[in-house]
Amino acid sequence: MGRPREFDPDQALGQALEVFWRQGYEGASLTDLTEAMGITRPSLYATFGNKEELFRKALDRYESGVMGFMAEAMLRRPAREAVAGLLYGFADAQSGQDTPAGCLGVNGALACSEASDPVRQELARRRAAVEARLGDRLRAAPAGELPPGADPDDLARYVMAVAQGMAVQAKSGAGREALRRIVATALQAWPAG
Amino acid sequence: MGRPREFDPDQALGQALEVFWRQGYEGASLTDLTEAMGITRPSLYATFGNKEELFRKALDRYESGVMGFMAEAMLRRPAREAVAGLLYGFADAQSGQDTPAGCLGVNGALACSEASDPVRQELARRRAAVEARLGDRLRAAPAGELPPGADPDDLARYVMAVAQGMAVQAKSGAGREALRRIVATALQAWPAG
DNA sequence: CCAGAACCATACCACCCGGTACGAAACCGT
DNA sequence: ACGGTTTCGTACCGGGTGGTATGGTTCTGG
């Protein structure tokens, strides 16, 4: 019972995700968020808790939506195809025409003040989780699928570094074609293509 | 004539650089800056203009100091050695024990609010300048020094992406050894090593 | 020894931040 | 139609932001 809410929480969360994606965690003010979501401040707090919880929920949605391609890409074989699928997927996700440039996780990872340290640590944790998943995937690959003498964890770290570097460039204006060329060059480190 | 200032502007600028490096442009408040510099607000404004000009001066100092190794590294031959020198130099600069983790330029490049858009654009411009310099260096290399079929601009973009990716990881806690392994893996994309 | 100039320190400005108290409005069960 | 409950809208809170006005202090040139 009681007065029904006049907005769709899912759609509002989507708008919040876009604002966070474009402006980062600290760069997105409550005014920016509520205006984009079409919601008043108290409604935001009643529905999503506070700014940090709203960000975490937006992050969940980002991972399960925008980054949803990862699960499938990880399964590809041989291992080089999985890596290629991941990198090209990242490149496309960071350069979508209807989405902000760059990566939500990377954008929020660097700056700014130390007040948002919990958020930064959460983002670092999630990035580390992806890196670990990739390391597991590569470690499970049949002998011969990896570059000779390469360590799976080193490869995973390298792939993540390329992805994060692309995120920086995308945020600075690099287009999809430029990112895809980076991926193609990066894959040269993986012979037997 | 007049009362002499009681601080050394060069040393104060060095302290400001460290604060900007660690906390980013927006993350560094005037209180943080003045406390680290041992200076009052009006002294800062009288000596350096305003926060943005102070940041630009810190950036100049960063490029000529911390990034000073680039000029020498660019001259190495063959071209692969120049790239290796750059990447290992970046890795070390981003993981110094007495300096903040990560890269001043990358830290400020991503977040946060759009109020600091001029600063972001300036940083993007400087990064593009480095990329262009590297592209010129590679384009001038004798035939055969580059990977077969590789475009110099693509290579330059790739190298910058790896460097920026390392900056993200360094800011997230990656140590010097981890960064150096990324460089070693990245150089696998450049055969004939 | 004094006048003018430069610097230092305090205290303040308007503005924006994340977060909330409170009353009015809209709904449901009875 | 009415009481209870939930949401909405406004207006506000303390605190921090970048930036500055003002007055006292310390120096140099004459």
Strand and helix map with partners:
Two copies of one chain form a homodimer.
Chain A: H1 9-23, H2 30-37, H3 41-48, H4 51-64, H5 69-75, H6 79-94, H7 104-109, H8 117-139, H9 152-171, H10 176-186
The first copy, chain A, binds a DNA duplex (30 and 30 nucleotides) through residues 1-6, 29-31, 39-43, 45-46, 50-51.
In short:
Two copies of one chain form a homodimer. With 193 residues, chain A is mainly α.
Order of helices and strands of chain A: HHHHHHHHHH
- If classified by CATH, what would the architecture of the largest domain in chain A be? Orthogonal Bundle
Q: If you average the pLDDT of chain A, what whole number results?
A: 95
Count the beta strands of chain A.
0
CATH class assignment of the largest domain in chain A: Mainly Alpha
Write down the CATH topology of the largest domain in chain A: Tetracycline Repressor, domain 2
Low-confidence stretches of chain A: none
- Give the overall shape of chain A: elongated
How much helicity do the residues of chain A have? 55-70%
Largest interface: A-B, 52 and 52 residues
**Helix/strand-derived class of chain A?**
mainly alpha
Your description of this structure?
Two copies of one chain form a homodimer. With 193 residues, chain A is mainly alpha-helical. Chain A has two domains: 9-61, Homeodomain-like (Arc Repressor Mutant, subunit A); 65-188, Tetracycline Repressor, domain 2 (Orthogonal Bundle). Chain A has ten helices and no strands. In chain A, helix 1 packs across helix 4 (51-64), helix 5 packs antiparallel against helix 6 and helix 6 runs parallel beside helix 9 (152-171). In chain A, 40% of the residues are buried. At the A-B interface, helix 7, helix 8, helix 9 and helix 10 of A face helix 7, helix 8, helix 9 and helix 10 of B. The structure holds a DNA duplex (30 and 30 nucleotides).
